[in-house]
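We store chain and fold; example below:
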Amino acid sequence: MNIHFLLGILFSLVGLLIALYLLRKKKALERPFCPLRADCHTVIQSKYSSILGVPLEYFGIGYYLLSALLYTAPIAFPFLDVVLLKTILITISVVGAVFSVYLIALQAFVIKSWCSWCVLSAITSTILFVISFVSLTPEVFVTISLFKRFLIIIHVLAVIVGMGSAFVTDRLFFKFLKDYNISEEEKNIMDEVSKIIWIALFVIIVSGIFIYFTNISEYNNTPKFFAKMIAVLVITVNGIFLNVIISPKLVSINFLNEVPFSRDISKKRKLAFALGAISLSSWLTAFCLAMLKNISYTLFEILGVYLVVVIFAILGSQVFEYVLSNKKIKIS
């Protein structure tokens, strides 16, 4: 058994112990020992510490346990297909690494508190991804390529769902602006739709990585693919700004200039429209790139067109915000 499998077992067990420790503390409502003066308790007890009511620690336990079993399997069962094992390992490690990035972003920009054990777990899952990636063989890439059509279908469907959800969110936003204010209930409805957007982004990124693996040399020379993933990156960063800067203040923003002037509120109002415009134009760009089979333009030419679209979308949003805030139109 090579060094990759030994390291895989070691780091899988480290991750498993972290997940078990945090779950025990979470269930007991106890404050875990948190090095580096972080605030582990706030993070593991936040509303973001579960998915559909299931604590994230259970997902971590499942991931690390499965990883440990897969890395141990060649010892107990030498006759097993190592190529298949490595294919499964790279699959779960990509999902684990991408999800870890999401959790780190939550701590940094949304919860604004750090959990030392969560960060260590994220580092562990990233190391497992690196281990699984460097141990890949040409046979594994061939196996992944067998699922290319399926991956493309999933990828395109995620783009469609993400773009549709973005348009639904914007439609709800304008519908709720009939009284020039967003209520707490209306904000919660938009937040629920936004969760679908984040799930779609997760699927797009993971499937995009595996599509890239199916033919790395080909995609290295495919400007359309990289332009689409850049648009997805913009959507992700833009979404973080929306959730950090705008979403918490959305209820307090008055979209009509009949209240006493507030420079801070005015800036946030303008920013809300600008970020919404970036989101929609980026989703539309990603959708168009996903639908078009062949584009005979360079990456810089595609990005140039994308930049122009985004600029015009932002300018249009600011004009609309100005007209709306001065109550010169009526939203229907």
Summary: Residues 148-325 form one domain. The chain has two domains: 3-145, 148-325. The longest strand covers residues 50-51.
